[in-house]
Amino acid sequence: MAYKIVFSDIDGTLLNHDRELSLATISTIKNLKNKLPFVLISARMPSAMRHLQADLDIEEQPIICYNGGLILVNGQAVSSTEIPFNILENLCDFNKSMNCHLSLYNSDEWYVPEYDQWAAREVNNTKVKPEIKSNNEVLSTWKETNKGAHKIMAMGDEAHIDKIKDYLSENFPGQLHLYRSKATYLEIANKEISKLTAIKFLLDNHFNIKTEETIAFGDNYNDVEMIKGVGMGIAVGNARKEVLEVANIVTQSGKEDGVANSLQELFKTQV
């Protein structure tokens, strides 16, 4: 099969132990860019992806943000799928008694109720700073402008995250993706979208490439459908068991330049 495009997750997949792009990764992707498109696909917000695009010299390519909730081409949204406002409102009301950290995202907006340990950790991971505003203030503004959330990130004690997950599962069945990357994190997105639906949207509407001609790299629960559904699904060595089980190939870990190593092998590219 002649593969014509590569999609890659970021955190846990493309970045090294310092949560940065290694020189080998940058060099490999720059060497490939004239042969085939390399597209970033992540749960991150756009501004947490653009600096990586710049480092890789692929700023002309689309980006898939929020696990497929927002797709940008030439900086413009070509697809946007939010969590409905009523779900957001109900969740914030339910959370009042626990006061669990809820980060609210829409496009390049990121709001946190306070700059706590959870916000600080995400700033360190993504190199983006949030705006401090209470969940109620954000709700009030978004209600007036008819906005929902592209992503909600609940972070806190394991018991609180358990309660939020159970509440959303019971009250909004079949409406949400609930990705739990660790016991203290719950990533919430609209059930209608995924990384694979976003890939198919771009293949059909922008690239005119078949799904079976596609390579994708990933490591976490939100990558399972993508890795299983593309032509060549590649899991990095540190991937979750569920990802490893559906991958066509398992490469080295993200910290060991697994993406770069696989691309060099597949396309005989020298760093």
Tell me what you see in this structure.
A hairpin with a 2-residue loop joins strand 4 and strand 5 (76-80). The strands form 2 sheets. The chain has an 8-stranded mixed beta sheet. A 6-stranded mixed beta sheet has the order 8-7-6-9-11-10, covered by helices on one side. The protein has 10 helices and 14 strands. It starts with a strand and ends with a helix. The chain is α/β, with parallel strands linked by helices.
Largest sheet: 8 strands, mixed
User: Spans of 5+ residues with little confidence (pLDDT < 50)?
Assistant: none
| Annotation field: number of helices | 10
Distance between the termini: 23 Å
Shape: globular
Supply the helix-strand structural class: alpha/beta
Overall number of strands: 14
Question: How do you describe this structure in short?
Answer:
The chain has 271 residues and is α/β, with parallel strands linked by helices. It has helices at residues 23-32, 47-56, 85-95, 117-126, 135-145, 158-171, 195-207, 224-229, 241-246, 258-267, and strands at 5-8, 38-41, 63-65, 70-73, 76-80, 101-106, 109-112, 131-132, 151-155, 176-182, 185-190, 214-218, 232-235, 249-250. It contains 10 helices and 14 strands.
Strands, helices and their partners?
Elements (H helix, E strand, L loop, with lengths): L4 E4 L14 H10 L5 E4 L5 H10 L6 E3 L4 E4 L2 E5 L4 H11 L5 E6 L2 E4 L4 H10 L4 E2 L2 H11 L5 E5 L2 H14 L4 E7 L2 E6 L4 H13 L6 E5 L5 H6 L2 E4 L5 H6 L2 E2 L7 H10 L4
Helix pairs in contact: 1-10, 3-5
